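[recover] target loaded
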């Protein structure tokens, strides 16, 4: 019977010690959500004002770009700067590989907020949720690192393989 009382006291101590951190995380998550709400509606208004191009190919070639969102316009501007680059194909692939993770990264904070609410709600009843919640935050950041490393590895492989092909004598 003493072991049961000891385990019960231990679990109570852990759950009590998690109350303040949970309240702090929920408060900061609420503040971040309010800030995100403002930026979301700003982006929504910008996109609402856009008139989608009837022919995207023609609009890109004419460089008016008025029907595209800001990230797409920025990408196209950077892409046009690469037209005279010595390694244009590799630089284009690198730009694509840099831009895509950056766009996905912009969703990570929102994804964490989506997962934190239910996770924190369950901490009161399921203590192991606390460790999985922290693990999820680490996973999100580390996944970004891995994507960046893979991008750089692919770029290096492409550049080195194109250099070795260009230095080989042609028969």
């Amino acid at each position: 019977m003493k072991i049961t009382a000891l385990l019960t006291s231990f679990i109570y101590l852990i759950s009590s010690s998690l109350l303040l951190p949970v309240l702090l995380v929920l408060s900061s998550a609420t503040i971040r959500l309010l800030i995100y709400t403002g930026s979301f509606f700003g982006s929504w208004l910008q996109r609402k004002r856009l008139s989608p191009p009837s022919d995207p190919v023609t609009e890109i070639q004419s460089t008016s770009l008025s029907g595209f969102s800001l990230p797409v316009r920025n990408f196209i501007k950077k892409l046009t700067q690469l037209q005279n680059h010595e390694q244009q194909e590799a630089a284009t692939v690198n730009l694509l590989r840099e831009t895509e993770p950056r766009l996905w990264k912009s969703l990570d904070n929102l994804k964490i907020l989506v997962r934190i609410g239910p996770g924190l709600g369950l901490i009161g009843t399921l203590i192991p949720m606390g460790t999985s919640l922290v693990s999820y935050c680490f996973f999100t950041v580390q996944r970004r690192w891995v994507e960046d490393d893979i991008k750089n590895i692919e770029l290096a492989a492409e550049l080195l393989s194109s250099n070795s092909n260009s230095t080989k004598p042609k028969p």
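[recover] notes: The mean pLDDT is 76.
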